[in-house]
Write a structure and sequence with these properties.
InterPro entries: Nucleotide-diphossugar_trans (IPR029044). One of its GO terms (molecular function) is glycosyltransferase activity. Its EC number is 2.4.1.266. It comes from Aureliella helgolandensis. It is a single chain. By secondary structure, the protein is an alpha/beta fold. It has one domain: Spore Coat Polysaccharide Biosynthesis Protein SpsA, Chain A (Alpha-Beta Complex), CATH 3.90.550. The protein contains 16 helices and ten strands. The strands form two sheets. It has an eight-stranded mixed beta sheet with strand order 1-10-6-9-5-2-3-4, with helices on both faces. A two-stranded antiparallel ribbon has the order 7-8. It is globular. 42% of the residues are buried.
Length: 403
Amino acid sequence: MADFAQNGIIGTLHNLRNRSTEELESELVQFSADTPMSLLLPCLFSELEGPAMGPIVEELAKIPYLSEIIIGLDRANEQQFVAAKKFFDRLPQNYVVLWNDGTRLRHVDATLQSEGLAPMQPGKGRNVWYCLGYFLASGKSKAVALHDCDILTYNRSIPARLLYPLAHPSFHYQFCKGYYYRAANGKLNGRVFRLLVIPLIRALKTVLGRIEYLDYMGSFRYALSGEFSMRSEVVTSLRFPSDWGLEIGTLSEMYRNCNLNRICQVDIADAYDHKHQIISEDDRTGGLHRMAIDICKAFIRKLAVEGIVISGSMLRSLKACYYRTALDVVDHYHNDAVMSGLTLDRHQEEATVELFSRVIVAAGDEFLNRPDESPFIHNWSRVTSAVPDIYEQLLGAVEADNA
């Protein structure tokens, strides 16, 4: 499925000859002597009862190079936490479960709240943030990969391909983003990326002119993937949103903190399918509607940081430009799907574009009307400065829960 183009401003690592997972893992075992590696799994307890997580754990149990697996568990009572521990007992690697709803971690959270440093809303962003804090506190690894826990087409080549660019001794990457194409059951998926992110970036370039940040974001083949990896030295300064802007916010942070030559993307799967969100056209608090608002705000906030003046007239021009650009993109994707023998509902695609065009203005209005909004979670560098023993508190809470 790969091409060989390097047509962005970050490196693209293709899957050109389908090296076996065993071959990659054999090298990663050697690399792990100098670059120990961890895997981070943010999950809900309900995902342990779903169709994906069991096969994922069976695949993870075969991985020979990981120093530790860090599991962030959300929405679990005590009985469910015990069940989760039993669920993961089949893993031969060292692993810990961060019981985010447990008394001990709630106490750590309360300590941070007293300093105004705790994440303000529940969700994946908060889960990932605490898991990264544990990763830093344990100090067992120099690189960490993260992937979602609802992947129905999971293969252990995913963490191998995510971590290889960071662990190879002659590479110098600090951050790696996974990409893949989204199709399942004969249907082209990935609506938010295809119909919002791609045409929005193109429209922003038309309205604002050439901006390196937009060239950077446009280089990612799937900017909304939940799979990425990073070296420990960049984790401490990472600030990202706690809402659906997590993926865009993380890429924006890497743009701010890393030399572009230290950022890459890698082809991690020939096929990828996971849980799909409903559009929720009439409810802006859920589904793809909420996701689109948060993503648009993440872009707008970053552009404001870059010195771009956001105004009502700019948003109206952006909406019009986006709408025309997105309709052209629908044409291309429809033809692409037909040629590949896939289905694409053009009416639904264009209706989704109409919703997203309204979302752009709504997100811009929220940004303009709430200039004091601060959705970012504080980075761990600031947290350890304010609470010097926070790593010890976090380690103690997790170890006591897992004892």
